[in-house]
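hey so i finally got around to running the thing on that chain from the lab meeting. sorry it took forever, my laptop kept dying and i had to restart like 3 times. anyway pasting the input first so we r on the same page abt which one it is
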Amino acid sequence: MFFKKKFRMIALFVLIFMLFSLFGNASEVKELKVAFGQEIVTFDMHNYRGTQDEIAGYLVYQTLVTFDKNQNIAPELAISWKQIDSFTWEFKLRKGVKFHDGTPFNAEAVKFSIERCTAGGGEAFTGFIKEVEIIDDYTVIFHLKNEYGPILESLTVVVAAMMNPKFVEEKGENIGQYANGTGPFILKEFSPGIRTVFIKNEAYWGEPAKLEEIEFRAIPEEGTRVMALRSGEVDLIENPSPNDIPSLKRDKNLYVYVSPKGRTLFVGFNLKDENVGTEKNKALREAIAYAIDKKNIVDFVLEGLGVQADTGFIPQSISKGFHDPNLVREMNIEKAKAILKDAGIEEGREIEFTVTRGRYLKDTAIAEVIQAQISKIGLKAKIEVMEFGPFTSYLSKFQGEMFQLAWGWGNGEPQVAMHALFHSEGARNRNAFYSKEFDVLLDKAAATVDFKERMRLYNQAYKIIFDQVAIIPLLHYQNVFAANKKVKGLYADPVEMVHFEEIYIE
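ok and heres what got predicted. didnt touch it at all, straight out
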């Protein structure tokens, strides 16, 4: 009897152990594998190359202020702020925060980061700041060059992240291959073209992340990303092909996530180029604008996963209705042909059309549709596909003719996007667009506090771009992800950042 009872107890313990192992381990899976369409190029936030760098950098770096889920300004590394006068702002910094290497975050890091951001690729986000004055270790004052309405919105962007001065100095020219921030994750491995791995920051000052490890992979082809998700090779993918959305929704193990996003896809022109640029080719650019059927692209290429750019360059969500309806060219093939004929532009003109693959949802497919559409007016587009890194370098040297690019509205305000892309001092002015009148209007808008008046000035400024046909707005994208149903808490905000700190595996 004793042995029988003992055997039953042992069997019970074994059963409990097996159940604990089965269910306990399932709840403790804390690794997430994610596939994006593009590789990360750099972790140097102040000299970022694209949104993929921002999404990755957002895991490890932080800003003074951020957006909450209602898109209201909220504290991050600054706990409070106040406007002293039109040109002066004071920020109180969060105490007890440390960079991943243990270095304390303080006012010195703020001064260094703002100055470095302004001198680098983040000038559009912080260039309005003339000087950062250190009052004490946890108080700084920003002295502005001029009145600037969207100051707090601009400081939310991870390009204006707080970086460690000592670490940046130590890494020198190689700083883009490393990361040392204050965020909820630490960069463990950066193997460009293979994978990037982040681990949980156990010493994080805020609420700790739920995941222990995240792995990013770059899979440019949409179909290959979907296959990787279906096979369980990855748990989450961005931008599945619209063709795959219905079957993904039917799959009992998967789900599709869609949310608003501020990113505008457009066709741009190198205005220095003799084939498509300069004043003599304005008619050519205008004809191309009238030849493109934006509705067809949204309805059939994206299958509704986008919004037609029928309010011009600035999305409705950004302009809040204060847009100029006259700054839009609707498709009109006959008008396009007449423009070319009147300008004496010969049929068969060949144009180099530089595009990306996998950087944006259906980017190459959209380019091929545009190629077919402009062929209807007798023009030939020769598509050149590039990876995003070489693509941006190519455009920065004004080597292209016509190109396809998308720009995010970052802080949910037109100033930064329009300054970066079109201002004579803009860090991302790939069009070689230069207009003193535009600069004056944009600078005046920046100094205007009233939003309605600011939008009036933006519309005036954009009319100059519209008249020159420097760009052709196509559509505004949405955040689109597909994931295994075990992935919970997925949230991608309107400025395209994915909040991995909220994700957990069930």
